[in-house]
Amino acid sequence: MTADRPPSAPRPRTPVNPPGTPVVPPRTSVTAWRPSVPGISEVLHAHFTDHAYPAHTHDTWDLMILDDGAVDFALDRDRHGATGTGTVVLLPPGVPHDGRTVTATGFRKRVLYLDTSVLPERLTGRAVDRPLLDDAPLRRRVHQLHTALGDAGDGFEAESRLAFIRERLHGHLATWAPRPPGREGSRLAAELRELLDARVTTGLSLQEAAATLHAHPTHLIRCFKQAYGLPPHTYLTGKRIESARRLLLDGRRPAAVAAAVGFHDQAHLNRHFTRHVGTTPARFATGAARARQQVTSP
């Protein structure tokens, strides 16, 4: 019989971050692209943990929202700070500005670079005086536009959302108020609906619709929504979903259906179809095929 061994002392555990060890911040990430939406020259999504922009200028307007953290910046020699998710930052073209992180965790931002067709340079002075806009509806609209820009097939929606952002920015900088739909509203709405019904597959841009009907883009959207209860881009998507359902019931494959009804690709069809119908096009088609077999089998 062997003697009981004394319990061995536990081995000391090395702390994850020993005292004095510098904390390594998460890696910086930057994603940028140029969307096919008139007026937007670039979209930028970034997470900076330890970065300072030198003083510089842009030829565009910079419309920025924060998703996390805080940023400190100078605009025309005056320093400003933006914190949290409630503020919209608007930096005008041609005016020097910098930017730097404030905390160890840095900040996450999404930026739209807008050309002067969206906002004219004559509004620069007012923007310098007021670069921070405490406007929750504007912030929500900018977020919705970024979401639409994430899918190349949602260009009509992105145009519509940009039109309302432009209108609200004009209200901040030029004290310009939108005109409510008047007696011509029903006529404009019906004419736009005819255009959309005729272009379900090929689609059309908001600029083209506004030019064809001789109406301001946001006024046209307001007239349509007042008459039919939903914005025109949502109506167009619904029409495409209706067409997709009919083709899937006929036995067409989802990839072919996406192109046939005007969606950018199958992923674009999947996203909208699932949101509208509650299932994917492939499952919808499988269920339809199974039902056809049951009906035709003896």
Automatic annotation (TrEMBL):
Pfam families referenced in this protein's UniProt entry, alphabetically: AraC_binding, HTH_18
Ranges in a coiled coil: none
Gene3D superfamilies recorded: Homeodomain-like
Regions of compositional bias (Pro residues) in chain numbering: 7-25
InterPro entries in the record: AraC-bd (IPR003313), AraC_XylS_family_regulators (IPR050204), Homeodomain-like_sf (IPR009057), HTH-like (IPR037923), HTH_AraC (IPR018060)
Domain HTH araC/xylS-type: 190-287
SMART domains recorded: HTH_ARAC
Disordered: region residues: 1-29
Record PROSITE patterns: HTH_ARAC_FAMILY_2
Keywords: DNA-binding, Transcription, Transcription regulation
Entry-linked SUPFAM superfamilies: Homeodomain-like (SSF46689), Regulatory protein AraC (SSF51215)
Protein name from the UniProt record: AraC family transcriptional regulator
Biological source species: Streptomyces bugieae
